[in-house]
Amino acid sequence: GEWQQLHQEGRAEASEGAYPCCLSFHSDVTFLVGREQKEVFAHRCLLSSRCQAFHAMLSQPQKAPQAPLILSHVQPEVFLAVLEYLYSNSVTLNNLIVSMTPGKGDLQVHCLAFIENHTQEVVQTHGFLELSELAMQAILQSNGLAIDEVKLIHAVREWAHVGSAVLGRSVRDVAGAVVPGLRLALLSPSELTTLEEDNRKDQMIPVREASKWLRIMGTAVQYTRGAPHW
């Protein structure tokens, strides 16, 4: 249909950074996004039907209906990632990761849902390693991540090492705020033993968290990713 054609046209120009700004074909709403007021074209019907936030925004009466809508508080790359998802039901992983900005409402919900369904692919991207501390916390709070906890802990450890190198801080310091989101109770005794050996090298997990390993290893209770945090 027309939307698929628009999506394909956008994908063809994405390498030039034009997607979805090229969607001026039959567009009936224009956004000026960010401080630089980047011009982005879209279609009211699709946005309203796909996103409650856009529905509310576009339903408000305007003195000049054809006037551009100014979104100076939104980063252009974040807005483009949202439109890419709304138009195509998919989004470039690096664009998605950039969009994981806490406090973005519907945007964060859409991004997190995608990450939950494609967790193993997401943790292997460069974008994952560039996540902010707050974005990482938001992801680790999810009960729906489609990944084994051991692999998730490994990915977070890699993220912390990259942050340590970039920020000049210890791995333990970089990971301090996100470690409580790791669910050590999901690990088997042998996995906990391996984790303890890794932790001796970088001290990513504080002693107060590591002490819980002993209690966990002494119980036969099994947990799932949906289990509550300690």
From TrEMBL:
SMART domains registered for this protein in UniProt: BACK, BTB
Domain BTB: from-to ranges: 27-95
Superkingdom assignment: Eukaryota
InterPro entries tied to this protein: BACK, BTB/POZ_dom, BTBD19, SKP1/BTB/POZ_sf
PANTHER family linked: BTB/POZ DOMAIN-CONTAINING PROTEIN 19, BTB_POZ DOMAIN-CONTAINING PROTEIN 19
Entry protein name: BTB domain containing 19
Organism: Varanus komodoensis (Komodo dragon)
